[in-house]
From TrEMBL:
Binding site for [4Fe-4S] cluster: 128, 132, 135
Keyword terms, alphabetized: 4Fe-4S, Cytoplasm, Disulfide bond, Iron, Iron-sulfur, Metal-binding, Methyltransferase, rRNA processing, S-adenosyl-L-methionine, Transferase, tRNA processing
Protein name: Probable dual-specificity RNA methyltransferase RlmN
InterPro entries assigned: Aldolase_TIM, Methyltransferase_A, RNA_MTrfase_RlmN, rRNA_lsu_MTrfase_RlmN/Cfr, rSAM, rSAM_sf
GO BP terms in the entry: rRNA base methylation; tRNA methylation
Keyword check for Lipid metabolism: no
Length: 369
């Protein structure tokens, strides 16, 4: 089956919500406030409320004069995301949230609390256009890109939930962000990079999460990987490779028809060289499809040759999706695969999958209303 893939990394603003404070950098915020006839200091005041106090409703910003709150709300705080429902598992420590955007678009995020950290898996698009056949999100297709503010607001809401003790375990702090929810982040490049800057900049310009605690995932848009390397960021790059050979990858990850395994690994090497950061390789292990011992050997050899010690393989037991013919590999096969990759001098571990029973695990997000 022929698959139509996007030819550009940045689609126009079509279908996106009106301008929001979180779409703007510091200079743009000041200009927007002055357009409203307000003094320039209000720009930092609004940003401190949104990013510092995690307040998204101008009516609750008590240091803003009551007379201007409605005007500010209309101009800089359009409705972004409304929670439709929260579903929890793992004793309440994993929470899947279905969001409805202002135009009715549905998307999801997953908040996972661990003993030493709290990680939020966020979406960068509603749906996904990459069409990977083993992924529920990819099979649903792409609805639209998310705006910078819609991406950032997922993080603000989760940070507030952690602070307020809405997640099992009491009050805490959101520490890690992974762009592994719905969508291909590098197909919404400009807005994702802007969102990363808002998420990682200290208040009043952002939420103050460490760049090294942010992971941006991609199925392998090689030119965009190189572009990201030149952004001056210290985020982790995660490449969803899923097989080391082009023949199978063209089926599992259709974008491989445009950028081969060699091109993707070459771009990943450039990322490691430029940023000094280790690259993560995501590999969903699928029974009798990509779990053969020779593929483990090939994967280890190719990664060691391209990246040496600057790579880690995250082996992901395939998460089931309704009606799918795909299934996870048996445990002994998984263990042998790990052993063979390590034998080639490449670090390899099996991801501890969270949220499978509430369809919140990797590849399961489908945003059903």
């Amino acid at each position: 089956m022929a698959v139509s893939l996007p030819l550009v990394f940045d689609a126009p603003r079509r279908g996106l919500p009106p301008r929001h404070l979180a779409d703007l950098d510091s200079d743009e915020r000041r200009a927007a406030v002055q357009e409203l006839g307000l003094p320039a200091f209000r720009a930092d005041q609004l940003a401190r409320q949104y990013y510092g106090r995690l307040e998204g409703d101008p009516e609750k910003m008590t240091d803003l004069p009551a007379a201007v709150r409605e005007k500010v709300g209309a101009a800089l705080f359009p409705p972004l995301l409304t929670p439709v429902r929260h579903i929890a598992c793992d004793g309440g420590e994993t929470r899947r949230t279905l969001w409805k955007a202002g135009d009715g678009t549905l998307l999801e995020s997953v908040l996972m609390r661990y003993p030493d950290r709290a990680t939020l898996c966020i979406s960068s698009q509603a749906g996904c256009g990459m069409a990977c056949p083993f992924c529920a999100t990819g099979q649903a297709g792409l609805t639209r890109n998310l705006s910078t503010a819609e991406i950032v607001d997922q993080v603000r809401a989760a940070a507030a939930a952690m602070r307020d003790g809405d997640v099992s375990g009491g009050p805490g702090r959101l520490s890690n962000i992974v762009f592994m929810g719905m969508g291909e982040p590098l197909a919404n490049y400009k807005r994702v990079v802007a969102a990363v800057r808002r998420i990682t900049s200290p208040a009043p310009d952002g939420l103050g999460i460490s760049q090294r605690a942010v992971t941006v995932s991609t199925v392998g848009l090689a030119p965009a990987i190189r572009k990201l390397a030149d952004e001056g960021l210290s985020v982790t790059l995660a490449v969803s490779l899923h097989t080391p050979d082009d023949e199978l990858r063209a089926t599992l990850v259709p974008v491989n028809n445009r950028w081969s395994v060699a091109e993707v690994l070459d771009a990943a090497t450039y990322y490691a060289d430029t940023t000094g950061r280790r690259v993560s390789i995501e590999y969903a292990l699928i029974r009798d499809i990509n779990d053969q011992p020779w593929r483990a050997d090939m994967l280890g050899k190719k990664l060691h040759k391209a990246l040496g010690s600057r790579v880690h393989v995250n082996l992901i037991p395939l998460n089931p999706t309704p009606g799918s013919k795909w299934d996870a590999s048996p445990k002994p096969v998984e263990e042998e695969f790990v052993r063979r990759v390590i034998a080639q001098g490449v670090s390899c571990t099996v991801r501890n999958t969270r949220g499978q029973e509430i369809a919140a695990a990797c590849g399961q997000l489908a945003a059903e209303g």
